[in-house]
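Supplementary Note 3. Input sequence used for the single-chain structure prediction.
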Amino acid sequence: MNATAKSGGALTRLLISERVVVPAIILNAMALIVLASVEEGSPVARAAMAVDYACVLFFVLEAALKVSVRSWAGYWASGWNRFDLIIIVLSAPALLTPVVDLHELSVLLVLRLGRLFRLFRLLRFIPNRDHLVAGVCRSLKASVGIVLGLMLLNLILALGATFLFGRFAPEHFGNPALSLYSLFRVFTLEGWYEFPDLLAARAAHPLWAVLARLYFLGSVLAGGVVGLSLANAVFVDEMMMDNNSDLEKKVDALQEEIRSLKTLLIAESARAATPPARGDLDERRARVGGKAAAE
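The predicted structure, written as discrete structure tokens, is reproduced below.
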């Protein structure tokens, strides 16, 4: 009985260990690549679907085993376990594939994308992941103000483009929603020059062409060059904050040691410069005289 319990416990630990979970995730990723590459309904696609379905069942079993080993409270206490559970829930619609034809329910077809979320589980096996996640969270918090500022700038410029150029290029600036997307493209510096060239070709007066070029040139400089560069600089600086903090601590410790050494040297110098007292001088002379008499 004890041997059976021990073997069962060893099997459970093996199934929830990283040396089994990581290959399962990689195998699932390969199955998804095959599913996206071959014709649906082919023998290869059916085999890949079977592998994908088996991986889903394994991940559900893994979560159940972890709960049985660590209890629900112990399982839920881990942030990575909560992350895994969310991924499993999002990918659960894949379990309906044998009994429900998602093609018949076009609205639910998007739920098939849930299987892609399982690939995010590889994030938990990245070395120094906690340090990386903390850096990303800290960077996002520091960038909130800049992101909000860029969103406000995008809104202002988008409304201005709608009022000024909506009649000339309604497919890009016909309403605020289209203008927001178009100005976001301008901020990314991706083909920003196409908009003023299009407006210049469609405008009825040459002054509109000049205005369009100046407007989008200013948008590129304000949102693309200055805004995004500033956001990127803040994000990278916050990501490197841990390294800077360690360096600052080492410098502070070195400065403290230097101050202690300087204080010690000043005290020794003051002691050496102070003339000996009369009693100390007589005592030294007596010791010297006694030594000479002994010789």
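The chain has three domains: 2-125, 140-239, 241-285. The longest helix spans residues 43-77.
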